[in-house]
Design goal:
α2 packs across α4. The longest helix is centred in the middle third of the chain and has 13 residues, at 102-114. Strands 5-4-3-6-7-8-9 form a seven-stranded mixed beta sheet, covered by helices on one side. A two-stranded antiparallel sheet has the order 1-2. It has one domain (2-195): Vaccinia Virus protein VP39 (Rossmann fold, 3-Layer(aba) Sandwich). The radius of gyration is 16 Å and the shape is globular. Helices cover 24% and strands 25% of the residues. It contains six helices and nine strands; from the N terminus they run ααββαβαβαββαβββ. It has 208 residues and is an alpha/beta fold.
Length: 208
């Protein structure tokens, strides 16, 4: 697959599990019919409801940074098309994904079920709350930009080795992927690469 080499390996994606997952998941199934010819292009694509499917490189990069292992349970905030959840589910044992837009949640759940992903649970709710009943999580990934990583998600992350990655910054402007983790009980943050994601919508955030 030329796009795997051109878009991922050439930019430094090295984790064999992530690369295999990106090869296996049929990205063209997660985009609207009119965008199927562009499904493997190097950029995000609209999926309706003012949401997008992320650029393949960003999906792979965020997955790799989480240091995923087969026995992990991962929370995804913002299901969208379901593509990122599918990539995660190829690597880890269980994925909980939360989507506030019911039509997207149902569409993703139907497609993921059709593709045979029995280790993904799709929940229609406000992802700000995470999913306390399934916590703690080995990793948390957000597919929408937040002003900051909320305490509600920090509390659901495993203290020993857990990692969270999310775009942080103003809506519709340059943001940074931010990695968070606990080091001996102290919360640590690191800015990674600049990105541009749709904003995370929640009454808990004061967005302009």
């Amino acid at each position: 697959m030329d796009w795997i080499e051109d878009q991922l390996i050439s930019r430094g994606i090295q984790d064999p599990a992530v690369l295999e997952a990106m090869k296996r998941v049929p990205r063209h199934r997660f985009v609207p019919d009119e965008f199927i010819p562009e499904a493997y292009s190097d950029g995000p694509l609209p999926i309706g409801c003012h949401q997008t499917i992320s650029q393949p490189y960003i999906v792979a990069y965020m997955s790799e940074v989480l240091n995923l292992k087969p026995d992990m349970k991962v929370l995804e905030v913002g299901t969208g098309s379901g593509y990122q959840a599918a990539v995660l589910a190829e690597i880890v044992s269980r994925v909980i994904t939360v989507e506030r837009i019911s039509v997207l949640a149902q569409r993703a759940a139907d497609l993921l079920n059709e593709l045979g992903y029995s280790n993904i649970r799709v929940i229609t709710d406000n992802g700000y709350k995470g999913c306390a009943e399934e916590a703690p999580f080995d990793a948390i990934l957000s597919a929408a930009a937040m002003p900051h990583i909320p305490d509600s998600l920090q509390r659901q992350l495993k203290r020993d080795g857990g990692r969270i990655i999310t775009p942080v910054g103003p809506p519709y402007d340059i943001q940074f992927l931010q990695l968070g983790w606990f080091n001996r009980g102290v919360w640590k943050l690191e800015n990674l690469i600049p990105v541009r994601f749709v904003p995370f919508i929640s009454e808990h955030f004061d967005l302009p």
